[in-house]
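Bench notes, afternoon.
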Amino acid sequence: MDIEQEIRQLRQELEAANYEYYMLDAPTMSDYDFDHKLRRLEELEATHPELITPDSPTQRVGGAAAKGFEEMTHLVPLESLQDVFSFDELREFDQRVRESVEDLAYDVEPKVDGLSVALEYENGLFVRGGTRGDGRIGEDVTQNLRTIRTIPLRIPKALPRLIVRGEVYMPKAVFHKLNEERELRGQSLFANPRNAAAGALRQLDPKIVAERHLDIQVFNIQYAEGKTFQTHLETLEYLESQHFRVIPHTSCATIDSCTREIQAIGDGREQFDFDIDGAVVKVNSLADREVLGSTAKFPRWAAAYKYPPEQKPSKVVDIVVQVGRTGVLTPKAVVDPVRLAGTTVTNATLHNQDFIAEKDVRIGDTVLVQKAGEIIPEIVSVLREKRPEGTMPYQFPDHCPVCGAPVVRDEDGAAIRCTGAECPAQLLRHLVHFASRDAMDIEGLGPAVVENLVGAELVRTPGDLYSLQAVDVAKLDRMGKKSAKNLLDAIERSKEKDLSCLLTAFGIRQVGQKAAQVLARQFGSMDALAAATVEELSAVSDIGAITAESITAWFADPQSRHLIEVLRAAGVNMESRVAPVGDQLAGLTFVLTGELSGFTRKGAGERIQALGGKVSGSVSAKTSYVIAGEAAGSKLRKAQELNIPILDESGFVALLEQGVPAKSDNS
């Protein structure tokens, strides 16, 4: 078999397996065989790039990052739909339609809460895809759409040109998993799947899009050259035969049967793997659609029914507080069971302490409950007239309900956090942060491995990392002896990290990487820092009164002291490796730009900080010097505009060695 023939055969086998897995949910090829064949195809295409085609399965992982999105003009406009908010309005829509056409039949579909896109095919090959935009002009996101595995890159029965419309979304399970991972990394959470999908589809790097596992429901043919259809249902059947994932749909002969189907969709919305924000009613006959036409904004042959937020009364049985992975205490109300949006609700979020105080929610109250965004049950209001006598305002706990450590309120918000260094509720987050690059930099200890270790009960605090045994780690999912050895070697190397890395790893409130470096240099050892008073800490440059109080409170907590002793016993370094060589740069702020031949950006910053100076990421009137290397850009120009002294690399070296800057050149 020659190379070209082998590549063609691999592509056919992989596409068939992809269709079975993602569309039919009936895979016949094992994951191992799929990965092996894909790797072989990647190798062949790497050595024969002239044989790479746009529909190759290897192209689904995404190419190089784009610098921006080009405009894409839609051949057929992607119209929006007229919203109706009651069944009476839906019947009015039906009456308007029947004034123009008779013998109607409808199609009813769930309305996916996602992003509308158009997919264009030429001779069966996917060539272009874009967002809706204003309906006529959108953004070309072809490379990002290629990463969605339910979009066929080639369809079986090629037409000269085919344009279909669909809704891109993030499946609920993917959304929840993504938010869990973001929470572990201390990143902000996405509010809902639609926002997450929108953010993913507009990423300039397709590789990031591929990691978000987006999906699509196709619901319309915009244009089909060389093929005619009589009804909408025919178009959906055709799309299904061409391996598209087609929106669930039901035929209805009357508007009353449409309302029953809309109610059924609403009641069963939990069965969908996507969020819905309504249901769509469409005239089935394509000829009737031509007769009805469109207004300046909407087609006259379709309407989008929007579900009203359903509210029902229930009694607050209890108020409980949960501790999230980032230590935030979140209250929720336990309520008498009530049916909302197709599910039985027994809990409702109370958001935070301020929310409880504002609405004055008390145990024993009767409250109105609804599903916010059709997802999260929440309390809308308290029915004060039904409040029983003797109820008391709710008092938020001042200690963590999980570990007993004191709680503190964020200065910039309503969040209240547990301060426990060994709080079990925060273990996953603590471990991920502890092992991160700016902290102990333990290679291979990412969120997935951390979850494995915690799930196997091998680690209960960060200190347990240093007593792991290779034989236990090797038994974990996807580890094995070699991976276990590599991980334990990385953990062992982390023992030699500078004190500043360990302080960063602790995650003390207000103490980030820079503050940790300042503290390590100033006090030299863990013991000296632990013994420092608020006054002594506040006297250190860059350490304010709030940070000083946070540090002393952390060291005073028994959990913190226990963690330090466990790490000390394991041989983790507790001393500063960076000697405080002087303070001749104290009070000076530096900005680094361009490439230095003798320093990395991080290394140059550490040298400046070791001499008492500060490093900033932007140039301002407060900047003392700009260190400009090769290919310096906008920061250099800004320094010249502000007349900030500029040092080249030789001047920087002289500054470090002699404490006297070389002559500045601002020309």
